[in-house]
From TrEMBL:
CDD domains: Tetrahydromethanopterin_reductase (cd01097). Keywords: Monooxygenase, Oxidoreductase. One of its GO terms (molecular function) is monooxygenase activity. InterPro entries: Bact_Lucif_Oxidored, Luciferase-like_dom, Luciferase-like_sf. The keyword Oxidoreductase applies. Residues 44-263 form the Luciferase-like domain. This is Alkanesulfonate monooxygenase SsuD/methylene tetrahydromethanopterin reductase-like flavin-dependent oxidoreductase (Luciferase family).
Length: 304
């Protein structure tokens, strides 16, 4: 199993030193045992724009896979999104993976000038179809030449479906290459069920075996301190939910503990047949990337 690391793009102090935090994290991830560098998308928030960040991390890294998860296609024009992602794939020499999801926040749709009525799996699938036509070099609009550049990866970057539910998994089996899962409370039984459902859906659709990835928040340190860090992070990130509900979630969400305990948890997830876990930090201190990387070295594989 591989282990990826997410940039702290949703932290309130991510811009305290300009781009320094994001660059130092990117270089630390690229230098470590990590298989992928990941980041998420929000519009009505103070995180970096996902597609702009793609260009920066392509320049800051040379080895690690770049995983934009998840991008919401309905927040973008599909032709423009296809061009941006193909450009990113060129800039990183074919290291791009893209997670796609419908998103859960109507305020992000409003901020992007997108209609919340498009927040459906059918609409997302239609936009994916347009993007794949662009990446195949087809003439999707009336123009002198097809829209380029073509991506380095033939047919476009790897596409993973971001989901928490079975209906999304079944509907995405026709077009996605795998799963960009998210585990709120790191329930291994539920994780196993989702993996089994994904394998079955892909088999029923006559598709190759899916790539299975999942992610969860983490905080390192003594349990009480780590749990409090996780709570602070969720209060900032989940700003559309009343704090009492966020606090209830934070009591059991993610992982809070030592690097050794996290390593043991990752081994149990590996036993479920997971291909990659993408860890989500809950603060912006880059030291944990090195500390945790040292703990995981030789325990899991990474992309060379």
């Amino acid at each position: 199993m591989q282990v990826g690391m997410t940039l702290p793009v949703m932290e309130p102090d991510v811009w305290a030193s300009g781009a320094t935090t994001l660059e130092s994290w990117s270089r630390a991830i690229d230098d470590g045992p990590w298989s992928s560098l990941c980041w998420g998308e929000r519009m009505a928030f103070d995180n970096p724009h996902s597609l702009t960040l793609l260009g920066a991390v392509a320049a800051w890294t040379a080895r690690v896979r770049l995983t934009a998860t998840v991008v919401v296609p309905q927040l973008h024009d599909p032709v423009s999104l296809a061009k941006a992602l193909a450009t990113g794939d060129q800039l990183c020499d074919g290291r791009l993976t893209v997670g796609l999801g419908v998103g859960g926040r109507e305020e992000d749709y409003r901020a992007a000038g997108a209609s919340p009525t498009t927040k459906t799996m059918a609409e997302m699938a239609a936009r994916v179809a347009v993007m794949k036509r662009v990446w195949a070099g087809e003439q999707v609009v009336e123009a002198t030449r097809p829209i380029g550049p073509l991506p380095v990866q033939a047919g476009g970057p790897e596409l993973l479906v971001g989901t928490l539910g079975p209906r999304t998994i079944r509907s995405a089996a026709a077009w996605a290459d795998g799963l960009a899962g998210m585990s709120l409370d790191v329930d291994l039984a539920e994780m196993s069920r989702v993996f089994d459902l994904t394998r079955s859906a892909w088999a029923e659709a006559g598709r190759p075996a899916p790539r299975l990835t999942t992610s969860f928040w983490f905080a390192l340190g003594p349990p009480e301190e780590a749990r409090e860090q996780l709570r602070r992070h969720l209060r900032h990130y989940m700003n559309w939910i009343p704090e009492r509900h966020v606090d209830a979630l934070a009591a059991s969400a993610g992982f809070a503990g030592s690097p050794e305990e996290l390593r043991d948890l990752l081994r149990r997830i590996e036993d479920l047949g997971c291909d990659e876990v993408q860890l989500i930090p809950t603060d912006s201190a880059v030291g944990k990337v090195h500390r945790l990387g040292d703990s995981l070295t030789d325990s899991f594989t990474h992309v060379v």
